Amino acid sequence: MELLCPAGNLASLKAALNAGADAVYLGLKDDTNARSFAGLNFTPQRLQEAATLVKRSKRKFYLTINTFPQPGQEQRWHQAVDLAVNSSADGLIMADISLLDYAHSHYPEIPLHLSVQASVTNLAGLDFYQKQFNIQRAVLPRVLSIKQVKDLAKVSPVDLEVFAFGSLCIMAEGRCQLSSYVTGESPNSGGSCSPARYVRWQEQGDNRLTRLNEVLIDRSGIDEQMGYPVVCKGRYLAEDAGTAQFLLESPTSLSTLELIPELAAAGIVSLKIEGRQRSPAYVEQVTRVWRDAIDSYLAAPAQFQSKKEWLSALAKVSEGQTTTLGAYERSWQ
């Protein structure tokens, strides 16, 4: 079972490798990937440095080219594919059909991983991408229950990867219409939900008001632990409620430590840590915990239990210092 960790820059990549990641995923310093934050990602020169470090460590790296090209600008995405292949990437993470076709037809030897942005959740979808583009792996969206993951793993024609830890997303994985509605910028082309330049905090008595593009999305206590403000994790008033509540999603982090035995038994090949936009310290902390947890499971599968020190370490870097199993435990799905 692979431990796949985020690398938003060279420092995070080194932190992930030193802490025990089997593989890292990263993106180029442009909008060919869905995390095109200022100050993050890799220039062609940095990509070569990253490739050298990864190969020297005998690990793997996958290049994320998971946005959807704008009309007339496809060439830049094609150049990203060319660059990845020339950099000896171990795989490409992609969602757009035209890009999958370009990569498959020009470089049939490069492994293709279907990005979570494709939002494929069923056998027919996996079959389609495997037959058309020979994908070797698919990243499942964070909307499936553990039973649904197991059922799909039994029949999947390709390897499956799931998110193990990090931020949650209730939309169709990266295509947040809520953020686009409030800010006017699409996460697909703008780099993220809730672009930082639209976020504003204002203290008012004992409260802190959080606004996104002047839309009030939360009112919290001054000392209350909060994650990064996004629309779906704001607090809102409903017609039949007197106080504002988390109506869409709570500000917590996904953590599937306790599901490691079930995911391994289901044949999941890769556990993905979310957070290319997070700090090297976050990457190091989370990678180290998950390395220890996976190794503990592999050493004695029948005796595996989550350790208090793992949970404590992860809680410190979780949104709201709270973790959840998210959709994995929704039995009604």
Annotation keywords:
333 residues; alpha/beta; 8-stranded parallel beta barrel; 3-stranded antiparallel β-sheet; 11 helices; 13 strands; 19% strand; globular
Could you characterize the architecture of this molecule?
- The protein has 333 residues and is of the alpha/beta class.
- It is built from 11 helices and 13 strands.
- It has an 8-stranded parallel barrel with strand order 1-2-3-4-5-6-7-12, surrounded by 6 helices. Strands 8-9-10 form a 3-stranded antiparallel sheet, with no helix packed on it.
- The longest helix is centred in the C-terminal third of the chain and has 20 residues, at 280-299.
- The mean pLDDT is 91.
- Required for O(2)-independent ubiquinone (coenzyme Q) biosynthesis. Together with UbiV, is essential for the C6-hydroxylation reaction in the oxygen-independent ubiquinone biosynthesis pathway.
